[in-house]
């Protein structure tokens, strides 16, 4: 998992590596608990003010396929050590 296209190392679009390709996470169901788990998994610590923004802000011609969505409907309790441990479709 990694962040891309942010203004700094603490923000950006989350990409997940699966099956040999990088893909995105759908924002359906995404909330502060999911953001907390993602930050922890990325070794960024706990988010001070997790925000969900339109992903178009972070999209660019970076070579990643926007049509690959590897996680959707992510629902975390907040104590998971990885997003894959959260409920998802």
TrEMBL record:
SMART domains: SR. It holds the Pfam family SRCR. The keyword Mitochondrion does not apply. The keyword Methyltransferase does not apply. SUPFAM superfamilies: SRCR-like. Keywords: Disulfide bond, Glycoprotein, Receptor, Repeat, Signal. Disulfide bonds join 76-86. One of its GO terms (cellular component) is membrane. PANTHER family: DELETED IN MALIGNANT BRAIN TUMORS 1 PROTEIN-RELATED (PTHR48071:SF18), SRCR DOMAIN-CONTAINING PROTEIN (PTHR48071). This is Deleted in malignant brain tumors 1 -like. It comes from Paramuricea clavata.
């Amino acid at each position: 998992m990694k962040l891309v296209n942010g203004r700094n190392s603490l923000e950006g679009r989350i990409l997940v590596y699966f099956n040999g390709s990088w893909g995105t996470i759908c924002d359906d169901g995404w909330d502060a608990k999911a953001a907390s788990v993602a930050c922890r998994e990325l070794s960024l610590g706990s988010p001070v003010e997790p925000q969900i923004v339109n992903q178009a802000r972070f999209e660019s011609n970076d070579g990643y396929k926007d049509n690959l969505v590897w996680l959707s409907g992510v629902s975390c309790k907040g104590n998971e050590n990885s997003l894959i441990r959260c409920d998802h479709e």
